[in-house]
Structures are given as C-alpha cells and as structure tokens.
Amino acid sequence: MSHTSSYLGDEDSDHHEDSDFISGVKILDTEITEALDAQLSITEEDLIKNSIIKRSLSTSFKKSTSIGEVDDFRSIEKDDNNYKKLFDGNRSFVASKLQSDPEYFMRLSKSQSPKYVLIGCADSRVPPDQLTQTEPGEIFIHRNGKYNVSVLTLSVANLVVNTDLNCMSVIQYAVEVLKVKHVIVMGHYGCGGVKASMEKKYHGLIDNWLRNIKDVQRLHWQELQNITNESEKFRRLVELNVKEQALNVCKTAVVQKAWSKGENVHVHGWVYDLESGIIKDLEIEQTEWFNIKPIYEVEITHGKRK
Predict the structure, then answer these.
(1) Which residues are catalytic?
(2) Which CATH superfamily is domain 111-305 in?
(3) Which of 288, 211, 305 is nearest to 253 (CA)?
(4) What is d(CA 60, CA 7) in angstroms, rounded to the nearest whole number?
(5) Strand, coil or helix: what is 226?
C-alpha cells in the first residue's frame, strides 16, 4: 500500500476516522464550554489542541489529500509552537501586572484617557509604548501597515495623507473624543519605506503610497542634492519625511478646529535611532508650522469652517 493510500485508507475507514475525530472535537468543545461556565482557566495548550483537531477535519481527510498536504499539516504544528509563544508572553504579562495590582485590568477596562496619539511606522523594532516606557491606556497608536509581510523592507513610513480615511479618523477620534494633548508623528532612521522611495525600482502597488515620500524629496530636492554621502542623505530624508507628515497633521481641519477653540493640542515630529535607542524631537510645531500657516490656516467660527 502506498504512503498516500495508507494515510487515507478505504472509504469505510475514512468514515470511521472522520466520526472519531468529530466525536473528539465535540468532546473537547464540551469540556472547554463546561470549564468556561465554571470560570476555570483554559490553557493555551487546550486551545491549540482544539485548533489542530479542527484543521485536521478540514484538511487531513479529504479524498484529494496528498503527501505534500501531510507535510503542510506538520508545518502547521510547528507554526503553532511559535504561535503559542505569544500566549505564553500574555500569561506572563497578566501575572506580573496582577501581582502588583490585582485591580489593574478591571480598572483599565472601564475607560481610556490617553494624553498622546502617535502615528508611527509598522516596523517591529519600533514599539512606541516600550520605547517611552508607557503603560496600556497612555498612548493612542496608529501604525501604517506593511505592503506584504514577505517584503520586510517596505514598512510604510508613518505617512499622514489627507485621503487616508483611516489615519484621518484616528486623528479626529483622538483629538475630539479622547481629548489628547499631543499628536506625535514618529519615524525612524533606516526606514525601509523611505529607502524604497529613493530607488527607481518597480515595487508594485506600494509605489502609489511611496510617491508621497518622493513628493517630500521634490520639496527638499536642492537640500538633498547637496548631500553627497548617501547614508547621510537617507537619514536626512527620514527627518524631512517626519517633518512633512507632522505638518500634514497641522493642516487638518480637526487640529485647527481644536486650536480655534483654545484647546492645548501640540503636534510633534520624532525620529527614533535604531542604533542608539534615542528618540529625537524635531520641534516641528515651534519652528516649521508658522512658516506655512498663512497658506493652510482654516478660519473656523462657532465650530464651522468659513
């Protein structure tokens, strides 16, 4: 009997094995439901076991199953071990918080009142809360996503684009509902999105997004052309991109409306240095906004634009 036929068995064997697995899933689901009703702790091993069994039903016993699909299933089990690490970290986080403050999560669940909203890059090396040692509930965060997880260099560079309804909605909610006092745009040296914008390569759909950074180059073309060292030019473009995105925040009617009402909202541009771990404030609001304010200022009376 071949490997494949041994794995699949004949029709009666398939039916019998399917029934066994279905029964197993029903029993496991019942155990988990009963435990939840009893307010017992369900371990991640239980959840992963349940997930593996259900995937087995949907993939392992199809008539078309091949040896390659069996190998895929084994790969899923390995991925589950990596996935499980996230739950291990979560359990450790919960335990450490509850040890020092038993009411921590109950209190956090009631509301949020962050003083900051941060617009940042999706780069996994730039976690805003850890870099600033802030707690959950202190920073409202919007991070631009990656074009494709297999293209690790194309993290999309903390852009603030007035046609991006997601970003605009985050700013509005943060300023008007949460009443944050600081809007922060944070980029980082070594940003893959900025680097890609300096190239003439075709990257696909993301080129439309990266064009926003090319427009930053156009605005500051002469300054960038005067920098002969490519590494220094790259670093400077990171800073200029953060500056322009922070100014884009200032241009929004949401922020200007808050200013017209006398609300103390400040806009900042930060650059994080991966090599040193230090965040630098570019002092955008103090030095840059007032130079272009006459062009972009929106006069607002009684909450309405003129």
Answers:
(1) 121, 123, 125, 188, 191
(2) Carbonic anhydrase (3.40.1050.10)
(3) 305
(4) 9
(5) coil
Cα separation, 140 vs 112, whole angstroms: 9
Q: State the amino acid at position 137 in one-letter form.
A: G
Q: What is the pTM of this model?
A: 0.70
Cβ atoms of 255 and 171 within 8 Å: the answer is yes
Residues 112 and 256: their CA atoms lie apart, in Å, by 24
Cβ 194 vs Cβ 157: under 8 Å: yes
How many C-beta neighbours within 10 Å does residue 138 have?
A: 15
CB contact at 8 A, 281 and 269:
yes
> Measured between alpha carbons, how far is 268 from 285 in angstroms, rounded to an integer?
6
Structure tokens at 177: 């509902």
The phi-psi region of residue 49 (left if phi > 0; otherwise alpha if psi is between -120 and 50; otherwise beta) is alpha
DSSP per residue, 89-149: HHHHHHHHHHHH-TTHHHHHHH----SEEEEE---TT--HHHHHT--TTSEEEEE--BS-T
Q: Please choose, from the candidates 187, 214, 190, the residue with its C-alpha nearest in 3D space to the C-alpha of residue 201.
A: 214
> Domain residues of the chain, as ranges?
3-100, 111-305
- pLDDT tens figures, 72-118: 656 666 678 889 999 999 999 999 999 999 999 999 999 999 999 99
H-type helices in the chain, by residue range? 3-8, 11-37, 44-59, 67-100, 104-110, 128-132, 165-172, 192-197, 207-219, 221-225, 230-251, 253-260, 284, 290-296
pLDDT in tens, 6-17: 334 444 544 554
